[in-house]
Every structure is written in structure tokens, then in C-alpha cells.
Amino acid sequence: MYFKMISLCSLLVASASYAQTKDEGPTEILNVMPSKCVALNEGRTCYTDVKFAVTAPDIGDYCLRESGTKKILQCWANTKSFMYTLNFGSTESISYELISKQKRDTLAVTTIEVNWVHKIKSKKRRWRIF
User: Which residues belong to the signal peptide in this entry (predicted)?
Assistant: First the structure.
């Protein structure tokens, strides 16, 4: 009897917490797919098409830019959600940020990581006379 009561209580708590998380929906403003790019060898340029999905908190003017160089990729006016496809090509990981044009602040930051399958191994050089 005691076991049945505990299992029933735990089931009710689990279902209540599931209902709360289900109603909240996605909380991320800036989503990127894929977030990783894999090159064959270390130091080689990795190429992929990256899709950015933005769901801003309010309707407004927003820009997507590269974090390091502050180069603006594209801006959107009077919108709340939008998509952007980037032809990514880099040897290093790069961060991108979503900025608000009205407030001039950064709303979200995401990074596309560059990984590789084979790391460059240093070869041993052996001296030979003949």
C-alpha cells in the first residue's frame, strides 16, 4: 500500500513538471543548425550551409553579425521571427550575435565550432647516411 502511494505521488509530480515545461515553449532567441562543422584534416577549411532561426522577444529591427569582426551579415526591420542561411567556410570556430538596432545591445550569441577528424601528427625525421 505504501509503495502504491509513493509511486502515485511521484507520477503526479512528474506529470505536473512536464506540463509546466511543455507550456513554456522554446526559450532560445537564436538557434543555429548545425552548430558544428567537421573538416577531414586539422587546418583545412570546413564548409557547410548553416541555418539561423531567430525568435525575438518583441517586434523590432534586428541584425545578425559576426562577433569577432563585427561584420553585419543581414538586418531585418519590423519583425519578430526570421530565418537566415549562411554559406559557412572557416578553419576556426566563429561566434555570431543577434543585436537590436533600437537598443544597440546584444540579445543572443551562438558559436559554430570547427572540428576535424584527423589531427596533424608531427613526423619523426631520422637521419640516414645511405
Answer: 1-19
